[in-house]
Amino acid sequence: MIVTASRVERFNAAHRLHNPEWSDAKNAEFFGLCNNKNFHGHNYTLIVKVTGEVDPESGYLIDLKVLKNIIRKQVTDRFDHKNLSLDVEDFHKLNPTAEHIAYVAWHRIKKHLDPKFALHVTLYETERNFVEYEGR
Ligand code: NI
Questions:
Q1: Burial 21-39 (b: 16+ CB within 10 A, else e)
Q2: Phi and psi for 35 in degrees, rounded to 5?
């Protein structure tokens, strides 16, 4: 019996999208408002889905308290109320786009999850824009 269990967490963070290899003009044109040099913020929503075999003894796939604690410790406590571009080492060499934030979150969570589970993350940067990553 294969089930997916999901947990939603939220965090607020600032960032600036910028490629240091490009000119200021090209950055401004490509990233638009997200290139603002004094940063800007988003209210992010992170949806973490874990898929696997239900344990017949407990009836659980995974204890969702355990999953919540992994997400908070590894991701949202590190990112919440931070400037991702300046305060979070993961993004010192990685542009903090939604794609890259989802990628970093996936790897941080995966490291602390039983390898028998498949992991899928969805990151909403705005109500209408979201990305998904599952480790490929
Ligand atoms: Ni932005």
A1: eeeeeebeeebeebbeeee
A2: -95, 0
Count: domains in the chain? 1
- For residue 113, the domain's CATH number is 3.30.479.10
Residue 99 designated active-site: no
Give distance in angstroms: CA of 54 to centre of ligand 1. 38
Q: Dump pLDDT digits (tens) for 2-56.
A: 999 999 999 999 999 999 999 999 999 999 999 999 999 999 999 999 999 999 9
125 is catalytic: yes
Residues spanned by the domain of 119? 2-133
Token pair of 7, please?
């947990």
Residue found under tokens 């997200």: 34
- Look up 34 and say whether it is catalytic: yes
Q: Per the residue annotation, which of 81, 92, 112, 134 is the catalytic one? A: 81
Please, is 118 exposed, middle or buried when counting C-beta atoms within 10 Å of its C-beta (0-12, 13-18, 19+)? middle
